[in-house]
Amino acid sequence: MIPAVVQTLAEILSNGTSLISKELIDFSHPQIHPNVRPALNLYCYDVRESSLIQSLGHQSLRIDSKPLLDIPEPDSPRWFDLSFLISAWDCTALGEQRLLSEALQMLLNYRVLPEEALAPGLRGHGALPIQVSTRALVDITALWRALGVPLRPALHVTVAVPFTCRASTSPQAAFRAVRPGTNGSRALQLPP
User: Could you say which architecture CATH assigns to the domain 2-60+78-167?
Assistant: First the structure.
């Protein structure tokens, strides 16, 4: 799914900026290039489970009607937030600012990525939420330091993406009801 998100974002950015083609979008680690030509760098720097969307499509494991554990529905996808760093590269700071402004303007047109704009591997789940920000999930200075590149302006784009679980057994098969014992324990109640 990650390559499909990259493909979708690259398509949107190449169609809405002065970049001539997707070949001018680099997907590798952002670094300083000695022979810089106008380009955007689209780098996936964080993948984490989406807490907002993940709450949908879950069953709750309960003891005495109190939630104990959320179990994903067997056929429901698990949602992840993929975070990308988008930076612009050019031989002048003004050129970089122009490219980054074009990218920001293009991405702000979307609160969700419509299904028809998605790469084929992402279709079938409807529109996907996208968030564009100038703030990273982590400290910006620490992020650039970890990347080994001097601090520079960048956009932080997060797309929520479904990953379909393909487990050989359902999550409920992993749990067995416990019979009440003499120690006062109660049986686990699995939802129907």
Answer: 2-Layer Sandwich (3.30)
Contacts of residues 167-171 at CB distance under 8 Å and 24 or more positions apart, as own/partner, are: 167/74, 170/74, 171/71, 171/72, 171/74
Token reading at 83: 């975070």
Cα(79)–Cα(135) distance, integer angstroms: 22
Please state the rounded mean pLDDT for residues 94-121.
92
Q: What is the pLDDT of residues 108-140, one digit of tens each?
A: 999 999 999 999 999 998 999 999 986 767 788
Please tell me the predicted confidence (pLDDT) of residue 35: 66
**Where are the alpha helices (H) located in the chain, listed in sequence order?**
2-16, 51-54, 93-107, 140-147
Q: Write down the residue that tokens 């992993």 correspond to.
A: 174
pTM: 0.73
**Hey, where are the domains in the chain?**
2-60+78-167
Q: How far is CA 57 from CA 147, 177, 181, in A?
A: 36, 22, 33
Whole-angstrom CA distances from 153 to 32, 72, 93, 105 are 14, 39, 10, 15
Spatial distance between the Cα atoms of 159 and 7, rounded to a whole number of angstroms: 13
